[in-house]
Design brief:
about 500 residues; mainly alpha; single chain; 2 strands; two-stranded antiparallel ribbon
């Protein structure tokens, strides 16, 4: 066996311990709410997770360290298989409850493996699209499980693995493979430990803020976890619309906090530097976009509806740009222009180095700078030199081109993925959904957002669910690891065919 395959399987074994640990953590919740029937489901999930994880790890424990391409394979496979394990409690609990009288239809639907798998993919990728017909009808343990998946998925399973399991493979390779490049410590291990401390602090602050605003402790815990992770799973059927304006305003603050990068949070907490919030270009872009987008959406809703929906406008724009997915309105009833404005926000996303999805504002800024630099080059006099300035520093032309190329390539991959999904989904969804609805849903899935026009649901055909799950998977990993995972076996097959042809 190829030594790098052994390394990939060993590190994958470590990753697969995570759903098992999460299942064990969830056992007290079953007891607290008296839902003892769920104990076996979570014990079974833990047993399967630990058995597979330990088997792979012990079998290939002495494998070599991997390089970045193989770390990308590990991350791609891990983010695919972990949701598969995370779907087990949905299936087992739904199968058990379906045998009792007066079981809600919402629970019956989760006997379908596609629905269970979809909910788990949406949870671990911190997307928030849900096939639950009425989330309020789910048992408390499944509401907790959805929140826990988003909370772990928001910060990243690789970050968790590096912080507690100490993988044999170079931590930097795995950290980079999960599309992260920010360091707030001397080592990657120190960095991820600080990220977890910051994450725990902000989660606690979010829960307390929502409790003070008027939520019950149970609702505050769940929404604090899914809000700071920019996930978007909610307990009421109509998301945050079920709460009063004071709670909605508090949720906006939580969503914005989740869209700010961990290095900036580190500056705020450990060094007290308030100016860090606008010191770099991507965070200045975040504040500008939050204001401009909210105003644009506000005037659009007033123009078409004749009413001042200022809080809804700010809330929905913050939810879209912060890729959180909470909602205070029925987006299906919104007009095409309003949906397209939100789509732009979902594609942009928040700051790189946070829990958000989307392209990330650091890339959006790079593309905007590329336009300015291009115009500047055209207008230069023959004797003048071109300077590339970013965040107050002059960078080389090579560095500028590298940033632009990276942003442009990912942007092209994003648009290609959305275009392909639109072509397929438009032929699957019912005639009541417009092209704008399909574009919106595709951008929401790829951007790990969770806002929906109603396309996502338990009765969506299996192919539609597969397309949206693929988008969520690719969006969480920023596409490249998924492409590498898909192309790797094809490359091996091609090389084998070439060798056989040469022999002939």
């Amino acid at each position: 066996m190829n030594p790098y395959i052994k390394t990939t399987l060993r590190d994958l074994g470590l990753l697969l311990h995570i759903p098992g640990a999460m299942a064990v953590i969830s056992l007290p919740v079953c007891v607290i709410f008296g839902e003892y029937y769920a104990l076996l489901s979570f014990l079974g999930t833990a047993a399967i997770s630990f058995a597979i994880g330990q088997g792979l790890y012990r079998l290939f424990k002495k494998a070599e360290e991997s390089r970045l391409p193989h770390a990308l394979l590990t991350v791609g496979l891990g983010w695919f298989l972990i949701p598969c394990l995370g779907s087990i409690p949905f299936i087992l609990i739904a199968s058990h409850l379906s045998q009792t009288p007066l079981t809600p239809l919402t629970i019956f639907y989760f006997q379908n493996p596609w629905n269970a798998l979809f909910e788990a993919f949406s949870g671990f990728t911190s997307t928030g699209l849900s096939v639950a017909l009425h989330s309020s009808e789910l048992p408390n343990i499944l509401l907790w499980w959805r929140s826990l998946m988003e909370w772990i998925g928001g910060v990243g399973v690789i970050v968790l693995m590096i912080s507690i399991l100490e993988p044999s493979t170079d931590a930097y390779q795995l950290y980079s493979a999960e599309t992260r490049n920010t360091k707030i410590g001397l080592t990657i291990t120190e960095t991820v430990q600080k990220i977890w401390k910051i994450y725990l602090i902000y989660t606690a602050i979010a829960i307390l803020l929502l409790r003070v605003a008027g939520m019950s402790w149970w609702h505050a815990i769940n929404h604090g976890m899914t809000g700071i992770s920019t996930g978007g799973f909610s307990i009421p059927d109509d998301s945050i619309a079920a709460y009063d304006t004071r709670i909605q305003a508090a949720v906006i603050l939580v969503m914005i906090a989740g869209a700010i990068s961990f290095p900036v949070h580190y500056q705020l907490i450990y060094k007290g530097r308030l100016k860090a919030l606008w010191q770099d270009s991507q965070h200045r872009a975040l504040w500008i976009l939050l204001v401009v987008g909210s105003l644009l959406l506000f005037f659009e809703t007033y123009w078409f509806h004749g009413q001042f929906h200022w809080l809804d406008s700010v809330f929905q724009w913050a939810s879209a740009l912060g890729t959180c997915g909470f909602s205070t309105v029925n987006l299906k009833e919104w007009l095409t222009v309003e949906k397209l404005i939100l789509t732009v926000g979902m594609i942009f996303g928040g700051a790189s180095g946070s829990t958000v999805g989307g392209l990330k504002l650091t890339r959006v800024v790079s593309l905007f700078k590329a336009i300015l630099w291009r115009v500047q080059r055209v207008t230069l006099a023959p004797h003048q030199m071109m300077y590339y300035k970013l965040d107050g520093k002059v960078i080389s032309e090579t560095q500028a081109n590298r940033r632009i190329e990276s942003a442009a390539v990912l942007g092209a991959l994003w648009l290609s993925a959305i275009a392909i999904s639109i072509f397929i989904l438009i032929n699957i969804v019912g005639p009541e959904y417009t092209l704008a609805d399909v574009i919106f849903e595709s951008a929401s899935a790829l951007g790990s957002v969770g806002l929906s026009t109603g396309i996502t649901g338990p009765t969506l055909p299996w192919l539609g669910k597969v397309i949206l799950m693929l988008l969520m998977w690719m969006g969480r990993l920023e596409i490249v690891p998924v492409l590498l995972l898909i192309s790797w076996p094809l490359g091996r097959f091609k090389s084998q065919v070439s060798r056989r042809i040469r022999k002939l």
